[in-house]
Amino acid sequence: MERPTSQADWQALRESLTLPSQAWIAGRATAAQQQKTLACVSPIDGQLLTQIARCDQADVDLAVTAARQAVNQSGWSDLAPEQRKQRLQRWADLIEAHQLELALLETLDMGKPINFSLNVDLAGSVQALRWTAEAIDKWYGELAPTPGNQLGLISREPLGVVAAIVPWNFPLLMATWKFAPALAVGNAVILKPSERSPLTALRVASLAQEAGIPDGIFQVVPGLGHEAGQALARHPDVDCIAFTGSTQIAKQLLIDAGQTNMKRVWLEAGGKSPNLIFADAPNLKKAAKVAAQAIAFNQGQVCTAGSRLLLEASIHDDFIDAVVTALQAWQPSHPLSPDTRAGALVDQAHLEQVLKYVAIGQAEGAQLRCGGQACLQDTGGSYMQPTLFAQVDADSRLAQEEIFGPVLSVQRFETEAQAIELANHSIYGLAAGVWTQDLSRAHRVARALKAGSVWVNQYDAGDMTAPFGGYKQSGIGRDRSLHAFEKYTETKSTWIRLEV
């Protein structure tokens, strides 16, 4: 398929698409047992895309039964790692071959610019699956340091049935970060995509089958969180929950696991990430552009969004002016235009939630410097201007609560110690940025920040080689890197006496 080069080309491709709508259970597309559906509406224009199967307890029971049977009978976990690698790599090839279709589904579903859907989400998903597949036959067990008459083996075994519950902001990429390592080490995976963006998950399920993933080893159950999601979380035959989403839901999953079978729970939750700009930053003009991107990319719907901008007093006023100017390049436009940098928020309800926080910020006395309003309302879509508040109090809701939209809060600091104190003044600890040309300061501040990722003189960097996750109420466990394999396995110690 030739790559579209214009909005009209993408619209034409849209007309030729057959949208997936059914769950994928036990190797086939199937309607929900109760025949219920969910409306899948595009935030681009508010138009109905399709009706999606609304799975509940009955469908989850079928999927878990199929997963357990596949774990016991398909031989997936008994394959040589090299063989699992080959099938996962074949799956990655198929996803890449269908990247235009999948990128379009992603954009239609949640409103992000098609250029980012293709070059960030799809490219990242393929790379994550390939990297994970390639690593699995290079992940070794251990030998314990034993006496001469003992042999101590430390091995890893798959947990069994893993339920992955993923968010709507990066639907396929967040899913791949979880299902790739879980499958690579030999588990079965049941994926519950967000009801706001289920299309790519449903489409890649059939590609998994084509790649040779056994029936029941990878399944997709779309539905509401309090129905399909909670059914998975409370199911006694699910061995693990891997989740990305809000801190509120993450806490509930811990309760559900504790009240049932004490399944493993791995959580990547909320963030309110600080971006610290010191006066000696090597390139303040570049730093201002990156600070704007850190809050406007993906319409601010990023768990690591640099939503708190901390500025040294001597550069405070000029830097704010530069960020306000830079944000003009992130005004929303039609997501199917290849030139668009900012698209729609995921739906009208979320737009209203973000606008509520704008009103809260104004009521708290923060100074609105730009944005703050919905836009492109004649399209029927859910669009929001990039927004900047100055003079934000450190204890205000604007500074403390995750908004998950393009709303930036600016605070001033006088000293390095005050900057660190402000940065750590949060229940979250997912990520942080530090801008300084002082190498010692960079190390001091990075070490002092309570965050799972710290970026120096850049923001939101990294790849599959580095683990990703947070401190405090930003979660438990890590995605990406070899550390991700640990989440989906049990550690077994085997001691062998070597003399009769």
Outline the structure in words.
- It is a single chain.
- The protein is α/β, with parallel strands linked by helices.
- 39% of the residues lie in helices and 21% in strands.
- The protein folds into 2 domains: 7-269 and 475-492, Aldehyde Dehydrogenase, Chain A, domain 1 (3-Layer(aba) Sandwich); 274-468, Aldehyde Dehydrogenase, Chain A, domain 2, CATH 3.40.309.10.
- The protein has helices at 7-16, 57-73, 81-97, 99-110, 114-135, 171-184, 199-211, 225-234, 247-259, 284-296, 316-327, 348-363, 397-400, 416-423, 439-448, 483-487, and strands at residues 23-25, 28-30, 37-41, 48-53, 142-144, 150-158, 161-165, 188-192, 218-220, 240-244, 264-268, 274-277, 308-312, 367-370, 374-375, 383-384, 387-390, 407-413, 428-429, 431-435, 453-456, 471-472, 475-476, 489-497.
- The strands form 7 sheets. Strands 14-17-18-13-12-20-21 form a 7-stranded mixed sheet, sandwiched between helices. The protein has a 6-stranded mixed sheet with strand order 9-8-7-10-11-23, with helices on both faces. A 3-stranded antiparallel sheet has the order 5-6-24.
- Helix 9 links the parallel strand 10 (240-244) and strand 11.
- Helix 5 runs parallel beside helix 6 (171-184).
- The chain starts with 6 loop residues before the first helix and ends with a strand.
- The mean pLDDT is 97.
